[in-house]
Amino acid sequence: MSIFEYNGSALVAMVGKNCFAIASDRRLGVQLQTIATDFQRIYKIHENLFIGLSGLATDAQTLYQRLVFRHKLYQLREERNMKPETFASLVSAILYEKRFGPYFCQPVIAGLGDDNKPFICTMDSIGAKELAKDFVVAGTASESLYGACEAMFKPDMEAEELFETLSQALLSSVDRDCLSGWGGHVYVV
Amino acid sequence: MSKVAIDVPPKGGFSFDLCRRNEMLSKKGVQAPSFLKTGTTIVGLVFQSSAATAAPPTLPPPPPLPLLKPSSASPPPTISTKIKTTLYFFVPIPGAQPHAVILDVEERWLLRHLRVPTRILQRFGSKLSPDGVILGADTRATEGPIVADKNCEKIHFMAPNIYCCGAGTAADTEAVTGIFNFNVLYMVSSQLKLHRYHTGRESRVVTALTLLKSHLFSYQGYVQAALVLGGVDVTGPHLHTIYPHGSTDTLPFVTMGSGSLAAMAIFESKYREGLTRDEGVNLVTEAICSGIFNDLGSGSNVDVCVITKGNTDYLRNHKLPNPRTYVNAKGYSFTKKTEVLLTKITPLREKVEVIEGGDAMEE
Known about the structure:
The complex is a heterodimer of chains A (189) and B (363).
Chain A: E1 10-15, E2 20-25, E3 28-30, E4 33-36, E5 42-46, E6 49-55, H1 57-78, H2 84-97, E7 105-112, E8 118-123, E9 129-132, E10 135-139, H3 142-152, H4 159-174, E11 184-188
Antiparallel strand pairs in A: 1-2, 1-10, 2-11, 3-4, 5-6, 6-7, 7-8, 8-9
Chain B: H1 19-27, E1 37-38, E2 42-48, H2 105-110, E3 131-137, E4 141-143, E5 146-149, E6 155-159, E7 162-169, H3 170-177, H4 188-199, H5 205-218, E8 225-233, E9 236-242, E10 248-250, E11 253-256, H6 260-270, H7 277-294, E12 302-308, E13 311-319, H8 359-362
Antiparallel strand pairs in B: 1-7, 2-3, 2-11, 3-12, 4-5, 6-7, 7-8, 8-9, 9-10, 12-13
Organism (chain B): Actinidia rufa
Main location (chain B): nucleus
Catalytic activity (chain B): Cleavage of peptide bonds with very broad specificity
């Protein structure tokens, strides 16, 4: 049994026209037993930047607390919010620091940069960044999510259509995965 | 004041805090996660089209010209029947194209008594074509059997005149060539930049090579990055491979990655010294394509980077041999709408307006 299958998760982010959407499932389980059906996996860093953390829930919460700490320090020093690309580099560095004893977490980062240009990226558990122009997925349902997103994605969707596409992709994928489910949270920015 | 375990490690470098916990988990039967690999095909090639070393294959035979008798100063030496040579005699005709003949040692010796205008013995072409290095890579990143990224960048920037392709674990190749503030010494690209500021000179390929190999050796192969490093500096074009344990090779053409055998097959059959830039790019593209189609760990597109003295061309997605074939123009239409349980709309804050000239404050 893999460590990523301990809690179960499904995360996906998609790019639209001057907007992005990030979605996660809501189940928290201990192997096959469900303990919560309203677990939050997507956290807000600042208004235009969200990070979703899949994998082991305890590592996800610890990592989130560290990232919020670093971002707050950055805000105090620079008197502005971090750009999504910078934040992605920060997460990557923090994860790579633990290269030989990693956090069991796969983050999905989504943000709006300058000129409302959407930015999404995902990483593996040691910080290898994968920038994508269309969609990124993470979690136990990732294989189904790859397939669903590949089929349903269209470039330059408006916010309404993006929401619909993303939630349909998420719901149909988690239906095929026993470790994730119980609905979804979608953030459209 | 109590010692707070702060997040920012004072010295940088790897931290091994979670190793004990992870070992405990693995003893309980929990498998370690698989990392993103760049099972790839990466290649490098040095091209030097200086004609002194080239045997021009398309040189037309010189047209028959009237024979010029050798000067009577001294009779030509006896030609032994064993040495079969052909001596070409030219009359410089005004307006004719400059021909050239590459003479081998015996022929030049035989002609030594002739007074032949020296410009006939010029090299082919009026100017030397530049030398350089061509790097190539595919663009697939895999996570186990799944393709995680169909178009990732494997040719990393080290210095304006030095680029590096990476195979192995993606995080390792990105971190080792990148600019993470990672160790007491920064990673190689930032180290090179600082060195450039310090010395005021262009970076040399051997500098990058030594930095990379000493870093990889110190981690005894645990940082799994196999690299092809190429660049052009003041000493000329250089191409090296660096293995994860820290050993290096310097070669005129190299391949690494899971597709290296497929690419090496192409190189071994088609490489020759004295390639021109276009021939080199075509050969590299062919080698990467052979890796893409014959190796499961490589795929998608071909990236090429041509580095010459003073100029670098990064041809991202130079060839796209795997386009998406069946694309539904209409897109996907959903019959059943998603059931929304709760909607919360938060308008983003307006920026605070700063009003100049605070009259209120003056009073």
